[in-house]
Amino acid sequence: MTAWSAPARTVLATVATAAAAQVAVAAVCVPLKTDMVYDLSGALTFGLCTFVSLYYPQLAITGLKGFLAAPLKTLLSLSSPAVFHPRQLLLSGMTLIWASRLGSYLFVRAINAGGDPRFDKIKQDRVRFSAAFFGQILWVSITALPVWAVNAVPARLQPALGWKDALGVGIWAAGFAYEVIADRQKAAFTKARKEKKTDDEFLCTGLWAKSRFPNYFGETLLWTGAYVTSLGLLTAPGLPVYAPWFAVAAAAAPVFEALLITKRHHDKKHGKNPAYIEYKRNVPTFFPKVF
Q: What keywords tag this UniProt record (predicted)?
């Protein structure tokens, strides 16, 4: 129990950070009825939580009062990233790369579109709009739970990198590439429609001919890779940091991601289009077809 208590405090502090960050953003966005920074705030929260999951034990020594009194001095006194285990640096880097790429992409898209149509009705209702930010707290906390769990364990207790880490990084890289390609194809299609270079109402070429949500598949795949990487620690024999059931529970991260993002929003927009009905009939929803 003692071995678990210190990492548990760090994980809880990381989740509390996600909650505090999203409450702060909601306090501004909900009254103003603006969703412009919703996705960007989610990406920044992932970054902030990555920092806290690594440095909370050091920050806890100073305390919140001490940090607020001299934030710059406190930050400058923190250890170099070199003190962390390569597994921690890998998972943290994977999280930051993904969050930076997706956050900036969605933010630019929101600016170009004048907002996010998902929130056109929701943001008029304070309760429903506030719930969207609560959902983002769950997204950050659960999706990256394997990352927070690994970062919470001191480097001296981390086992050496092994085949699980290599496999996980490979899966993450494949998922990241898949998501980036799918997003770029979608962005190019949206631009072509805006410039009236195509009359197609929906995208059904490239990766979008393999599945109807290739970007979501790529995102779920990369978080699966992060989970597999975390197993290098979570399933290490003779390491009583986490209970054996925790490695199974952490699998909820990629499952939650898949359930969260596979929404049938296209059905409302194109549901009666015969071409879209045929597209749905021939193209899988999530997992891409091989041929």
A: Membrane, Transmembrane, Transmembrane helix
**Which of 3, 14, 281 has the alpha carbon at shortest distance from 153?**
3
- Amino acid occupying residue 10: T
Residue 194, CA atoms < 13 Å, CB-side half-sphere:
8
Average pLDDT per 10 consecutive residues for the chain, totaling 291 residues? 69 96 96 93 96 93 80 87 96 98 91 83 92 94 95 94 97 98 94 87 91 92 96 86 83 77 59 80 87 69
Say if residues 266 and 208 touch (Cβ distance below 8 Å): no
Only one residue has tokens 């998501």, namely 179
Secondary structure element (H or E) that encloses residue 189, with its range: helix 163-194
Residues in the chain: 291
